[in-house]
TrEMBL record:
Any one GO molecular function term: hydrolase activity
Entry-linked SUPFAM superfamilies: alpha/beta-Hydrolases
Protein name: Alpha/beta hydrolase
Keyword Hydrolase included in the entry's annotation: yes
Keyword Hydrolase annotated: yes
Domain (AB hydrolase-1): residue spans on this chain: 16-249
A Pfam match: Abhydrolase_1
UniProt KW keywords: Hydrolase
Amino acid sequence: MDPGRIAFERHGNGRPVVLLHGLGDRRQSWRSVSPRLVDHYEVFSLDLPGFGESPAPGPKEHYDVYSLVRVVRDFCELHGIERPHLAGNSLGGSIALELGVQGVAGSVTVFSPAGFSDTLARWGMRTVGMVANLATRLPMPLKERLADTPPARAAARIALRGDPSSPEAKATRFGVQGLEPGAPYVRMVPKIADYDFSARPIGCPVTIAWGDRDRTLLPSSAEHAHQRVPNARMVSMLGVGHIPMADDPLTVAEHIRWTCNAADRGAHEHPWLRPLR
């Protein structure tokens, strides 16, 4: 994967902040968050390879969490971004944590990161992968019609939004454009189901936030995250689902700024950032 082909937006001035979206999403998922950061930070919002405007990797290229970690690191080196503050949701959260392990990040703020699910949740993700594979066999017009049916829209609101009945959640629907044979979403789902974040030290301030209404990666996963990243500041976001940038962008921005400020004040020496035992 060529880091030079990653589509991104760049706004503001100051210490760099890199925003990483989740599986099947795109950089615009941060559009309500980044304006709350640009007064103090230079904000980079990326389309991960295969999503948004960034081209997908070739069919024979490695395409998993670790290959995305490498290409994001290469992107930062290409653009001269040194020790950026990293923030990510779901898949993007896993990438940010892995880069934190590698010492690339100045701080890490993640929202419902993948890699901490129990056996039942992993079975659920594999089921999603099987359904996605089956959907690749359907004609696109039929998939579009199915995605727009009331049951499918209701399922999307329940899976992705904290309050499925809110007016803001009304337009939520599952995207079907990525449900083609060999598409990035179809390729990545089983990789995420098999991915497990292993306990290793992260030498910078870390915040791990979980929506208490996350029905995609369940809030109980936060317990595993706390065990494997014991130096992390753990946060529960009330009334928030799997994509907190859509449900509560103000609080998302506040948590990112908190972690950035902790790093900029030299909080790596603070007692709560204790070494991993």
